[in-house]
Amino acid sequence: MTSEHSAKSTVDQTPCFQSLSEDTRLRLGEALRAVTLIRNDVLFHREASIDGCYLVEQGALKVSIEDHTGGETWLAILGAGDLVGELGLIDHRRRSATVSAMTECRLWRLSIGDYETLSSLDATLNQCVVRLVCERLRLTNQQVCDQRMGLEARLAQTMLKLADAFGEPLPDGRVLIRYRIGQSRLAEVAGASRENVNRQIRSWRQVGLCDRINNYYCLSTLPKWKMLRGDNIPTNTG
Questions:
Q1: pLDDT tier, 235 (very low <50, low <70, confident <90, very high otherwise)
Q2: Residue 3 has what pLDDT?
Q3: Within a domain: residue 117?
């Protein structure tokens, strides 16, 4: 597969660009430049200058913010078909979060100059990005609600995010999370102590909701996990 064909294919598989015309998607594919990352590479840091946005072809990226104590808050895990760094295309301000690779990644970079040229030719491109920003604002509202949940719900939310990004279905219906993460990091992400996280995971293992296989977490009965997360929480304010 040629680089040009691979770039166009990624555009076609990016959900937020589905409403673009074939001509615009072709021009968009021609403007993209390949970027590769290995695990733990930083794509960009919070407060960095805006240089454009990125389409994810493969791999998983973590969006996070460090607090004043050096702790880390995970905002999102992004993967194939996602757009990264779109906010700066709208307001031209510095990066609002740090994005780093959780696995090897292949991305396609669209410079801010090319974005502005393409959106001047087809205003639908700008509309696509604005809609995506709105969708992510709704998710941010959800995260604010999440902070008011108890540890079990917050930790279940973290496990489901990992399952969504790295989940491998097993023949018996369970889902293996093929990403090794320690309890200290889980505690950091969930905003809890390691001891409380350890206690909660032990409780889940006792009732058969969670297990470990070769140091990977393995989840069973996903509908029950979604109930633990609390899917009835509203995701927006209007």
A1: very low
A2: 65
A3: yes
- Number of domains the chain contains: 2
Last residue of a domain, one of 112, 146, 180: 146
Q: Is the pLDDT of residue 142 over 90?
A: no
Question: How many angstroms separate the CA atoms of 127 and 186, rounded?
Answer: 36
Q: Are residues 113 and 219 in the same domain?
A: no
The answer on 136 and 61 residing in a single domain is yes
Verify that 67 and 133 share a domain, yes or no. yes
Q: Can you give the pTM of this predicted structure? A: 0.78
Over the stretch 13-52, which tens digit does the pLDDT of each residue have? 899 999 999 999 999 999 999 999 999 999 999 999 999 9
Q: Are residues 164 and 195 in the same domain?
A: yes
Q: Which range marks the domain in which residue 121 is found?
A: 3-146
pLDDT of residue 42: 96
